[in-house]
């Protein structure tokens, strides 16, 4: 139930962000990634298509397509998350790929988002 509520919150944040200025922000990205927190905390669990986590990664993928500045914003937000939760770098970085998406940049602690 909690994951469905978080996913709904993420969608609301996404809708609000896209209505205001066609760009997204880190609160939206964080909310979307947070839907995957069970997988980040326990790397033995793997999200699959149709779970709120992969639905959130689908939303991130769509956000990364338009406008181009979104990709840099998403990259910067991922870097903030990685630096804040450095024990979970590999899982945070792997989430889009596990769910079948590429955000158009490599996610690692060393990614330079200015060239994304």
Word description of this protein:
This protein has 116 residues and is an all-alpha fold. The protein has one domain: Orthogonal Bundle (Hydrophobic Seed Protein). The protein is built from six helices and no strands. It is globular and about 35 Å long. The termini are far apart. 30% of the residues are buried. Mean pLDDT is 82; it is low at 2-22.
Keywords:
globular, Hydrophobic Seed Protein, 116 residues, 6 helices
Helical residue percent band: 55-70%
On the 0 to 100 scale, the average pLDDT is: 82
- If you consult CATH, what is the topology? Hydrophobic Seed Protein
Query: How many whole angstroms does the radius of gyration measure?
Result: 13 Å
Number of strands: 0
Q: Identify the CATH architecture.
A: Orthogonal Bundle
Distance between the termini: 36 Å
What is the helix tally? 6
Low-confidence stretches: 2-22
Largest sheet: none
What is the gist of this entry?
With 116 residues, the chain is an all-alpha fold.
List strands and helices in order, with pairings.
Layout: H1 2-21, H2 26-34, H3 37-41, H4 52-65, H5 69-84, H6 89-98
Helix pairs in contact: 1-2, 1-4, 2-4, 4-5
